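Hi support team,

I submitted a single chain yesterday and got back a structure, but I'm not sure I'm reading the token output correctly. Could someone confirm the output below corresponds to the sequence I sent? I've pasted both exactly as they appear in my results page.

Thanks,
R.
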Amino acid sequence: MTKPIVALDFATQQDVESFLGRFNEQLYVKVGMEYYLQNGPDVIRSLKEDGHSIFLDLKLHDIPTTVHKAMKGLATLGVDMVNVHAAGGIAMMKAAKEGLAEGSQGDMAKLIAVTQLTSTTEGQMQQEQLIQTSLEESVVHYATITQQAGLDGVVCSVHEANILRDTLGESFYKVTPGIRLAGGDLHDQKRIATPTDARKIGSTHIVVGRAITAAADPVAVYHQILKEWGHEE
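Hi R., thanks for writing in. Yes, this is the structure output for that exact sequence:
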């Protein structure tokens, strides 16, 4: 079982360095659009030099050729996991995998796809995306075509992890954001769960952001989540 993935919800390198400086250990971190797009690829190299594992969360979604070229470039950064949007379709996802393989200079990063964001409700999906199924059916569909495209797994909420485990197998990644400790602030996410719930339901990886980064004592909260998640230090 992997360590919890800590989302670096910061805009500046100074804030990230200040946050990580509180830890006496190497973390698995998520670098998203806020941090990466404002600071560039050097932040990835810096994190790798410090020994951290990295999930680069840019959610690529474009025509296959563009995604292929973009992923080929991102592969040179040597991250551990990277993602695309499953809504881009099978051809786009296959192109992403091909680009990742071509650009990789060592071990190839795990490639996963976003299904439905944890901030999306079923009503929003049906009214705004005009997807007239249940939210669960939409996530299962996106996950199924992701597996058909040869990717390693998906981003989903904890609430779909169980059915995806049953339909697509234990080894298919179920990377679940929206993780909060019991009684924690929900922020802007609708479909959330505790680390213990995630472990029992079938998540293979959990992503934790503000529950750790906004805590008064992020190190203590991280180790509490580590314990509840069941990761052996």
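A quick pointer for reading it: The beta strands are 5-7, 28-32, 53-60, 81-85, 110-114, 153-155, 173-176, 205-208. Let us know if anything else looks off.

Best,
Support desk
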